[in-house]
TrEMBL record:
Belongs to the integrin beta chain family. This is Integrin beta. The gene is itgb2. It comes from Sphaeramia orbicularis (orbiculate cardinalfish). The keyword Manganese does not apply. One of its GO terms (biological process) is leukocyte cell-cell adhesion. SUPFAM superfamilies: EGF/Laminin, Integrin beta tail domain, Integrin domains, Plexin repeat, vWA-like. Pfam families: EGF_integrin, Integrin_beta, PSI_integrin. It is a single-pass type I membrane protein. Residues 616-698 form the Integrin beta subunit tail domain. GO terms for molecular function: amyloid-beta binding; integrin binding; protein kinase binding. InterPro entries: EGF_integrin_2, Integrin_beta_N, Integrin_bsu, Integrin_bsu_tail, Integrin_bsu_tail_dom_sf, Integrin_bsu_VWA, Integrin_dom_sf, Integrin_I-EGF_CS.
Length: 750
């Protein structure tokens, strides 16, 4: 078959064959993993303890490992044409066939594309329905006069194409509400200029003539039409086109015909959202609302969007031709880009060239065939490749050919397994369709031995696709483990790692213990859950552990004389040595001849700590108890401080470090210097023997009835003078029956 030829021809290019395996427990899992994954059902293909997932790989790799070609399973794609009527040559009043085949059934393997051809041939003399939709605003007055005599030429042009032509006629202006139309009662009845003798009342869209093959009927109906008018320049052309598309029974579109809608205008168009200017908020519902040949919802419903119009034109196989004047040609060319199978022609100022314009546009439309699809299921991709002289590029949404008889290669890919579904393929503007029924093939058709207890499974199970399916009470690769009263689930739980994966996906659970598989290089995974391998360590100079160590469970164990995460360094402490011959001042580790400092300490040798607390504050309690036998640590000074602070009482400092000056627990100033030793909490301290004294002068004033007395008392080296003040104040108030004010001033002496 075509798709199998494509499949096996693709396999010649080995670089494209990749089998991306995930969790593989069966042949079905393998087939779902990728289009190039195949399964080996050969018995004894796997070694004892080896995971059955090795049966799943590309065909080339399985053959290389020793699997026989006839034992390789690879479900193919299949396509079956269920309806293929011959293409019609001419139209003979019966339903012609222009697209073949008409029905096809595909059974696809996920991810593997299949390609089939479709053919299109335009039938000679195929009926044509042309609906002439004209702008009757005041600016189209001259055009209307010419169109009234247009019938003969228009029918003559259509008869060159087919003997089965019909023409209809419709007219439009705009919504009859402000600000589009003057709503003065008289102006609504006669919106034209005063000089215009013949003028019809304002209207949105009017259907004038249903499809007819009679030239005289067309002429009569068009002759009865008169000009109308509105206020603004854009017209309600999209309103009119929408109604002409969805009111098929009123317009008279035939089931088997090429449907052309010719729009003639000299102005732009209103579209969805413009209705808000008139307070019209109801969106266009894309339904027919014609009564007595008038669009009755014109003033109640918003204009359609371009997307809505394009959808209905496509749904009803209508191909629009925009015959517009020079001033709006660019506007309609942009509109045409958003509406498939549409053409734009420049209309002369009086519409004299409209017949030639329609002929040219029809020839362009009929010479170009665009094939596309609708209702495409999720996870299905379609690519069209035209097979013609003037082919457009292959595309995922459509294919284009500029010939009457053309072919396309249609490539369909189902990305996942799915239930039976369908979609249709059709040429734009043509009624013919191809129905594609799609299903997926995700199961293996294995040729299993019809033996209940196969010797391959130790007589305790069946063989399915090369794997043992054990009888109740037995587990293991070859059903070699009898689980007795235990259930298989309990045994398997004992093999699951912290993530709930059985043997880490790298081994088989046999009787509650993991039997680890070999790696691709032939080594074994190891560990209680096969979590370790000796091939995933860090590399240096593209060598595992730099070639200077052994990889063990992801960590390099370096040879003597080497260190580092990849054994990339020789053991040396030269650059870590300090001036006092310590390593990193005892505040870090020397690795690869560089200090890795403890938190807060700075390289290169961890001497200073920028983020640490000030030792003048943190060591004050130790200084107070060691130097003066007082303070919070007085009772346990040796235990709290002797191991972190070594001190000496001095009259003068000899250390060059920064001087600390702190107030002790008795309010005296203590001066000391600290020098950090090796390690993080080791200091040498020099403590100044003398502490700062406080001299307090107390001034108290007491008042007698006849005189004010002021006294001053001087105290020197009085600690805790605040409590003394309170005591003195209490005594004075007791001695004198008067109000007492005590003021204190202090100076410090050493």
């Amino acid at each position: 078959m075509l798709q199998q030829n494509l499949y096996y021809s693709t396999r010649l290019c080995q670089k494209e064959e990749v089998c991306s395996k995930s969790v593989i427990n069966s042949c079905s899992d393998c087939i779902k993993s990728g289009p190039y994954c195949v399964w080996c059902q050969q018995l004894n293909f796997t070694k004892p303890g080896e995971q059955e997932a090795v049966r799943c790989d590309t065909q080339a790799k399985l053959l290389e490992r020793g699997c026989k070609a006839e034992e390789i399973l690879s479900p193919p794609n299949s396509d079956t044409v269920t309806k293929n009527d011959r293409l019609s040559s001419t139209f003979d009043q019966q339903e012609p066939v222009q697209l073949a085949p008409q029905e096809i059934r595909l059974e696809l393997r996920p991810g593997l594309p299949t390609t089939f051809p479709i053919h299109f041939k335009r039938v000679q003399g195929y009926p044509v329905d042309l609906y002439y939709l004209m702008d009757l605003s005041n600016s189209m007055k001259d055009d209307l006069q010419n169109v009234k005599g247009l019938g003969k030429d228009l029918f003559a042009a259509l008869k060159k194409i087919t003997q089965h032509a019909q023409i209809g006629f419709g007219a439009f202006v705009d919504k009859t509400v402000l600000p589009y139309t003057n709503t003065n009662k008289d102006k609504l009845q006669r919106p034209c200029d005063a000089a215009d003798k013949q003028c019809q009342a304002a209207f949105g869209y009017r259907h004038v003539l249903s499809m007819t093959p009679r030239e005289e009927e067309f002429k009569t109906k068009v002759t009865e039409q008169f000009i109308s008018g509105n206020l603004d320049s854009p017209e309600g052309s999209l309103d009119a086109m929408m109604q002409a598309s969805v009111c098929g029974d009123k317009i008279g579109w035939r089931n088997s015909s090429t449907r052309l809608l010719v729009l003639t205008t000299d102005a732009g168009f209103h579209m969805a959202g413009d209705g808000k200017l008139a307070g019209i908020l109801e969106p266009n519902d894309e339904h027919c609302h014609m009564e007595n040949n008038l669009y009755v919802k014109s003033s109640e419903m918003d204009y359609p969007s371009v997307g809505q119009l394009a959808s209905q034109l496509d749904k009803n196989n209508i191909q629009p031709i925009f015959a517009v004047t020079k001033n709006v040609v660019n506007v309609y060319r942009q509109l045409s880009q958003m509406i498939p199978k549409s053409e734009v022609g420049e209309l002369s100022s009086d519409s004299r060239n409209v017949v030639r314009l329609i002929e040219d546009a029809y020839n362009k439309l009929s010479s170009k065939v665009t094939v596309t699809h609708d209702n495409l299921p999720e996870n299905v991709r379609v690519v069209y490749t035209p097979r013609c002289e003037h082919a457009g590029p292959p595309g995922e949404n459509r294919g284009v050919c500029d010939q009457v008889r053309i072919s396309f290669d249609v490539t369909v890919t189902a990305d996942t397994c799915m239930k039976t579904t369908s979609f249709t393929i059709s040429p734009l503007g043509i009624k013919d369709t191809l129905t594609v029924t799609l299903s997926t093939n995700c199961e293996c058709q294995c040729m299993d031995p019809q033996v209940a207890n196969h010797t391959h499974c130790k007589g305790k199970g069946r063989v399915h696709c090369g794997i043992c399916s054990c009888s109740q009470g037995f587990v293991g690769q070859f059903c070699e483990c009898s689980i007795g009263d235990k259930d298989e689930g309990t045994l398997r739980e004992a093999c699951k790692d912290e993530n709930g994966v059985e043997c880490g996906g790298r081994g088989d659970c046999v009787c509650g213990r993991c039997e680890c598989h070999t790696t691709e290089s032939g080594n074994y995974y190891h560990g209680a859950f096969c979590q370790c391998d000796d091939e995933q360590c860090e590399k240096f100079q593209n060598k595992l552990c730099g070639g200077k160590g052994k990889c063990n469970c992801g960590t390099c164990e370096c040879n003597t004389g080497y260190e580092g995460s990849a054994c990339q360094c020789t053991v040396s402490q030269e650059a870590c040595r300090t001036i006092n011959n310590t390593v990193c001042y005892g505040r870090g580790n020397c690795k690869c001849n560089r200090c890795e400092c403890d938190e807060g300490y700075q390289p290169p040798r961890c001497q200073k700590c920028l983020g640490c607390q000030n030792p003048c504050l943190t060591k004050l309690n130790c200084i107070e108890c060691l130097g003066f036998d007082q303070g919070p640590f007085k009772k346990n000074c040796t235990e709290a401080c002797s191991k972190s602070v070594f001190h000496q009482m001095v009259d003068q400092f000899t250390l060059s470090s920064k001087q600390c000056e702190q107030k002790d627990s008795e309010g005296c100033w203590v001066k000391f210097k600290l020098d950090q030793l090796v390690g993080k909490d080791n200091y040498w301290a020099e403590i100044l023997k003398s502490r700062g004294m406080v001299e307090i002068i107390l001034t108290y004033i007491y008042i007698r009835p006849v005189a004010v007395h002021t006294c001053s008392v001087r105290y020197t080296a009085v600690p805790k003078w605040h409590s003394m003040l309170r005591k003195l104040k209490k005594e004075r108030k007791t001695s004198f029956d008067a109000e007492l004010e005590i003021r204190a001033s202090s100076t410090w002496t050493y």
